């Protein structure tokens, strides 16, 4: 591979075949004489791109009948407000699980629109695990249960889908399309695109029909799911180029064998990297093994004074953006879909050599 391996947590690397195709089509998409970024979102050229992208996404995820797929703006952070605005009105109360930095932000925003019951929190343990189902103190009258299946900063991932009588809402920004999921278990799924789906600027929303249509009084038009569903995600100008690139990623995934094939690759990448960390006295991962993320692998060095040397050496060896989040420190390797297995192998080899010379 001629390009460096980019371990960024997001915006993350995109598949090289996708970038190559976008490069080929930059000046003239499919004989139209236009770049996709220049097209009217209501023109037949872009409409064909949008329709194909949704069709491919529905096929990849086996989305059942009765769910809408929306292609929105505002990132997952906008959904921290849009979810309670659209779903809490029935009872004015929602359950949330607090398992890391992103669920904390979702909880803080939800407090502005409804009563929030934190049904479980691992914050006292510094977010090193996901709570078990038996630990969830769920309300009997919640409008929904919100959780973050994968916390990108702490590297904590739920090894199960929570059971709830209320509709389940999931921020899947860092897990959607990384493996098969049963969409029918969820009332609503949302995901910022910049991890496994495409470039920043696009947000995917998958929502069950019966959860649309009762927003809080005063909800802005652009925050109303019904408005976007009824207009085919084109109430205003959508993020057209990001939508197009996401469509190319969907086709790339289908060519790899769909989410079953992608899931097997991702499982193997994560297992290799954790085995290298666990097999060393020089590196450590703080997360309980059962809750370790497939997508984001934080690790520390035995001597933090060597962090700068590690990052400099990794960059020289063609491995970028390994510095951990400022709130956690250490290192973080984000190994989303587009990170090839060879990139993980290269990181493991570099880690072993660094330990040999510095340990």
What does this structure look like?
The protein is of the alpha/beta class and 359 residues long. It has two domains: 17-255, Aspartate Aminotransferase, domain 2, CATH 3.40.640; 258-358, Aspartate Aminotransferase, domain 1, CATH 3.90.1150. The protein contains nine helices and 14 strands. The strands form four sheets. The chain has a seven-stranded mixed sheet, covered by helices on one side. Strand 6 (150-151) and strand 7 (156-157) form a beta hairpin. Helix 7 packs parallel to helix 9 (341-358). The chain is globular. The two termini are 29 Å apart.
Question: What attributes characterize this protein structure?
Answer:
single chain, 359 residues, alpha/beta, Aspartate Aminotransferase, domain 2, Aspartate Aminotransferase, domain 1, 2 domains, 7-stranded mixed β-sheet, 3-stranded antiparallel β-sheet, EC 2.6.1.52, aminotransferase, pyridoxine biosynthesis, PyrdxlP-dep_Trfase_small
In short, what is this structure?
The chain is an alpha/beta fold and 359 residues long. 34% of the residues lie in helices and 16% in strands.
Give the overall pLDDT as a whole number.
Answer: 97
Principal-axis shape equals globular
Fourth-tier CATH superfamily name of the largest domain: Type I PLP-dependent aspartate aminotransferase-like (Major domain)
Task: Kindly provide the radius of gyration, computed on alpha-carbon positions and rounded to a whole number of angstroms.
Answer: 21 Å
Termini distance?
29 Å
Strand order of the largest sheet: 2-10-9-8-5-3-4
- Secondary-structure element sequence? EHHEHEHEEEEEEEHHHEEHEEH
The level-1 CATH class of the largest domain: Alpha Beta
Q: How many domains comprise the coordinates?
A: 2
Quickly give the CATH architecture of the largest domain.
Answer: 3-Layer(aba) Sandwich
How many strand segments? 14
| Low confidence ranges | none
What is the CATH third-level topology name of the largest domain? Aspartate Aminotransferase, domain 2
Main sheet properties: 7 strands, mixed
Question: What is the helix content?
Answer: 25-40%
> Into which percentage range does the β-strand content fall?
15-25%
**Number of helix segments?**
9
Helical/strand content category: alpha/beta
């Amino acid at each position: 591979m001629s390009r460096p391996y980019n371990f960024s947590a997001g915006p993350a690397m995109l598949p090289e075949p996708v970038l190559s195709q976008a490069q080929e089509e930059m000046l003239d998409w499919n004989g139209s004489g236009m770049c996709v970024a220049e097209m009217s979102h209501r023109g037949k050229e872009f409409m064909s791109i949008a329709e194909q992208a949704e069709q491919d996404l529905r096929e990849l995820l086996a989305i059942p009948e009765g769910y809408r797929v929306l292609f929105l703006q505002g990132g997952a952070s906008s959904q921290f407000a849009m979810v309670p605005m659209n779903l809490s009105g029935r009872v004015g109360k929602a359950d949330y699980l607090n398992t890391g930095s992103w669920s904390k932000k979702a909880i803080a925003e939800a407090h502005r629109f409804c009563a929030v019951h934190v049904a479980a929190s691992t914050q006292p343990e510094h977010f090193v695990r996901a709570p078990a189902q038996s630990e969830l103190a769920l309300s009997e009258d919640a409008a929904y249960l919100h959780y973050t299946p994968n916390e990108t900063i702490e590297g904590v991932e739920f090894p199960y889908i929570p059971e709830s009588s209320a509709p389940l809402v999931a921020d899947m920004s860092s897990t959607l399309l990384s493996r098969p999921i049963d969409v029918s278990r969820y009332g609503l799924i949302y995901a910022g695109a910049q991890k496994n789906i495409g470039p920043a600027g696009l947000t995917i929303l998958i929502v069950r029909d019966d959860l649309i249509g009762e927003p809080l009084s005063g909800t802005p038009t652009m925050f109303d799911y019904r408005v976007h569903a009824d207009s085919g995600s084109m109430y205003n100008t959508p993020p057209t180029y990001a939508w197009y690139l996401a469509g190319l990623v969907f086709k790339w995934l289908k060519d790899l064998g769909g989410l079953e094939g992608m899931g097997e690759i991702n499982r193997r990448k994560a297992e290799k990297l954790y085995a290298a960390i666990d097999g060393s006295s020089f590196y450590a991962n703080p997360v309980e093994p059962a809750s370790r993320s497939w997508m984001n692998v934080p690790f520390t060095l035995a001597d933090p004074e060597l962090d700068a040397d590690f990052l400099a050496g990794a960059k020289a060896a063609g491995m970028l953006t390994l510095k951990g989040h400022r709130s956690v420190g250490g290192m973080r390797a984000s190994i989303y879909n587009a990170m090839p297995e060879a990139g993980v192998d290269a990181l493991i080899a570099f880690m072993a050599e660094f330990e040999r010379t510095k340990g």
